[in-house]
Amino acid sequence: MKKSRRKEKKPVGEPATASDANQSLINGSNAFSDGVQGRRLIPVFIALCALLVGIWTFDPKLSLSGDNTEFITLARSLAQGEGLVHLNDPNPQPATKYPFGFPLLLAPVELLFPGEWTPMKAWVLLLFSVGMGMLYLLMRDRMGALPSIAVVGLSVTAGQSYLTTDASGHHFGPLLLHFSHQVMSEAPFLTVSLAALWLLQRGVQREGIRGNRELLAGFVLAVFAYYIRSVGITLLGAIIVYLFLQRDIRRGLIFSAASLLAWLPWTLRNRAVGGGGVYFQQLIQVNPYYPDQGLLDVVGFFGRLTGNGAAYLNVELPRLLWPFFSGDGAFGPVSVFIILLAAYTLMQALRFRRDVLLVLYTAFTIGVALLWFWVDARFLFGVVPLFIYFAVRAVNDLADGISAHGGPWTGRALRWGLLVAVVWGQIPGVSRLAEYSRADYPPAWSRYYQAGQWLKEHTDESAIVLCRKGYWMYIVSGRRAVGFPFEDPSVIMAHMEQQAVDYVVLESLGFAQTARYLAPAVNEHMDRFSIAWKDENVPTYVLKLDN
User: Is residue 38 part of a domain?
Assistant: First the structure.
């Protein structure tokens, strides 16, 4: 006689076990999150939590990257009705490097708070907070409420973004949180792309296009993501390839044509104003800092791919996924884990069609990063939460497998042990970021800022300044600022004459070009310069050029 496979009921009055309590917590959280109140309240609660953490770590200072001041410059040009041009230049030229999406988001803030950058940073933080709510919604369609919340929390605090260096060495803070308030396109792009993925994944499950609001809204947001950050082309490509893999040929062709039509205006506009594709030019150059070195050949491309691949595998991704990582770039245990994670995620996508769209988008983004001249985890910013998700999903699957053989407590021990370890390692970075946000600029940048303030207070508004970080100086000083060619002194002096330069700033920011090109030009023609302002503690000079 066969034994019944039906589970025996617990006798009435038998005490609940820890396993029962754990399952009850999971079921209860999932039930609430699936209800009307949960669907509304949990994303809002997560967004508010992200906002509070962002306020704690909010840094009102300008980022040390020139990119943030270039975005502020472009936003001002739109707010003033000048179009997308470089207002910092004495002869403003059309901007062709960055798409218009992010400056367009910033322009209303410039109209409300003219000349101020702190409100722009607050606006970016608000967008980032909304993005964390969107991340929860995207995750909730794939996992339970608690793992989804874990993905959001780990994403916010993950990574080791470079902050500064002092006598004790390098200081790092969480990647996403560090950029959550910078006037940079990363955080807005993340929010829009996550919303696009959430809507697209839902829309694809429904037939047709007309009347499919989620699919249409997702595609529009994907296009807008591209116009916020050019790497958004990988999201559009992932959508199209995903539709073809689903054998959804009709919608794949329609979206291909729509993507082409959406891509054309910006491309044609750039060609019309003579700029062309700046990013493509940089992509194929040996060194974008020195264009005269020419273009990459096949060997150069292969060398860049392998070199960048090793850097991401052995440094950038380990820093992102394991907070205790402090390796020197050698292949190690965390690198092995990343390879196994990638193989497992790819296997799940191929065998069970799990997360195919997310895998495609992540793979395309990594591909672009590998081709780029620079190596930095922020180039993977848009897919950082997806890395965290793949890792959490793999750990969950492993824990389920262990529980099936060793009992429920073994799986729980793995989940909670790893979660506690990672959080324990990431929390100090959040604290360091908060401390950094309340500190002054690093000494060399502080002097550069002071030089800009002196120019603002003591020079005519029509003055033109030559310096290494032109956009940064323009935003701080309010004076038109130009860079200099990385060539010999005679070329630099001719450039000063052509641009009608009034002042030159020599700084100690650490850029090799200043010492290699600008300083020799000034020293060779010192009889034409006089010192207008200086700080010899951290050598920084504002020199008046005798015209």
Answer: no
